[in-house]
Amino acid sequence: MKIASWNVNGIRAVQRKGALDWIWESDLDMVCLQETKARPDQLDPALTAPRGWSAHWAAAEQAGYSGVVTYVRDGAPLAGARIGFGPRRFDAEGRVVVTDHERFLLYNVYFPNGKASDERLRYKLDFYAAIRRHLTARLKEGRDVVVCGDVNTAHREIDLARPKENEAISGFLPQERAWITRLLAGGWIDTFRAVHGDVTEAYTWWSFRSGARLKNIGWRIDYFFVNEALRGRIADAWIRPDVMGSDHCPLGLELRL
Asked: Does the chain have fewer CB atoms within 10 Å around its N or its C terminus?
């Protein structure tokens, strides 16, 4: 089972660049896109009903903001789909789609950014706490879970090019990093690290300013997490910095099922 995740920072702009073509031509089973910034009724059928795929959307109530979509290839197991994870406060921003693939639940999540204000940082931390409680409940029900998306936090110093300069910036604050630490301590697996260990200079986001991507001055803030029971099923995990079109690049997970 091959899954990709990508914060596209505007699905219409990425489509105009032709930067989604590699997805439709790939052998992926599921593709999770974040920050789509659009409702399905604003898009053409090439995005809302691509041939050979079903599409499952969560759109924000605020126009041009947030949003996620999960594409599932025809023939891949799909027992159902859910928009959001429960709390109205968070689901109004269109941040979560859950698809049920029988052997596991797939969570496509666009976690909040906390840089705008103290209020948004509090919202981000509250979202972190709420979704962790929700995921824990799914495990107690006996489900295996894959979580992917833009977490908007780099976990360790090796996950960004300039850790010292960013210690006081949201995205690398101690309380944000601690959430990932607690998640992993609670039995979740950072699949990229599980496969590649402490490899450095492996990033998924680069600022548009100052040629950061060309210089590889980046952050690894996009992840695939799986619960401990799926650890032995991890066949591969990858990052594709060669795929352009957004300030993020795609990442992926392959599971043996």
From this structure: C
Backbone angles phi, psi at 125, to 5 degrees: -65, -35
pLDDT tens readout for residues 45-84: 999 999 999 999 999 999 999 999 999 999 999 999 999 9
Q: Where are the beta strands (DSSP E) in the chain?
A: 2-7, 30-34, 53-58, 68-73, 80-83, 96-100, 105-110, 145-150, 188-190, 205-206, 218-219, 222-227, 234-239, 251-255
27 is catalytic: no
pLDDT digits (tens, 9 = 90+) for 74-106: 999 999 999 999 999 999 999 999 999 999 999
What domains can be seen in the chain, in order of their start residue?
2-255 (3.60.10.10)
Active-site residue, from 29, 144, 150, 247: 150
Measured in residues, the chain has a length of: 257
